[in-house]
Amino acid sequence: MKMIRYGEIKIKTCENVYEPAEDTFLLADNLDVREGDRVLEIGTGTGLVAIRASEKGDVTATDVNPAAVKCTQENAIINGVELRVLQGDLFDPVEGEKFDVILFNTPYLPATGDDATGDVLDLAWNGGPDGRMVIDRFLDEVPAHLKPGGRVQLVQSSLSDTEKTLQKLADMGFDASVTASERYFFEEIVLITAMI
């Protein structure tokens, strides 16, 4: 375990929890959270993005990985912030609730059974054969959890078909666009921001 600094935020990394990386910082650097927003972050990991969002919003953070839930709770205490942290898959922990902003650094890498280790960390990156296994489930469920005028910010890779995500959001009535990106030698990591 080590400590990572992001501005004034101090993050303790934890065993079996996705460590903040370029995709985490892309989301944290470009948050669209306004004063008093009710915010949901899915797949919170160490809690860095949730803690950053709590500077303005009232944040609920979820993760399917119990180690990540514990890690986020510890990092919230280290940083002196109040977060509601829940364990569960996608929207299951917040059934029936609505939010102004929903954030998700998706598991976006295409992977076959040979790529996965069977470790709990696989859940942070494994997007299934086309990289869209979790992204498409998220997109199908997100409208039911957004308040009118709500916003979604999600991170994904060009390897998992950014255009398909933008089209799916448009078909659901969202105004969606790529609002930030980072190019790497084999992929582009993009942040998509969508408003209903």
TrEMBL record:
Q: Which SUPFAM superfamilies match?
A: S-adenosyl-L-methionine-dependent methyltransferases
The molecular function GO annotations come to: protein methyltransferase activity; S-adenosylmethionine-dependent methyltransferase activity
Q: Which residues form the Methyltransferase small domain?
A: 24-108
| UniProt cross-references to InterPro entries, sorted A to Z | Euk-Arch_PrmC-MTase (IPR052190), PrmC-related (IPR004557), SAM-dependent_MTases_sf (IPR029063), Small_mtfrase_dom (IPR007848)
Q: Single Gene Ontology BP term? A: methylation
Q: Enumerate the UniProt keywords alphabetically.
A: Methyltransferase, S-adenosyl-L-methionine, Transferase
- A Gene Ontology CC term for this entry? eRF1 methyltransferase complex
The record's listing under Pfam families reads: MTS
Query: Which NCBIfam families does this UniProt record tie to the protein?
Result: hemK_rel_arch, PRK14968.1-3
Name of the featured protein: Methyltransferase related protein
Tell me what organism the protein belongs to.
Methanothermobacter thermautotrophicus (strain ATCC 29096 / DSM 1053 / JCM 10044 / NBRC 100330 / Delta H) (Methanobacterium thermoautotrophicum)
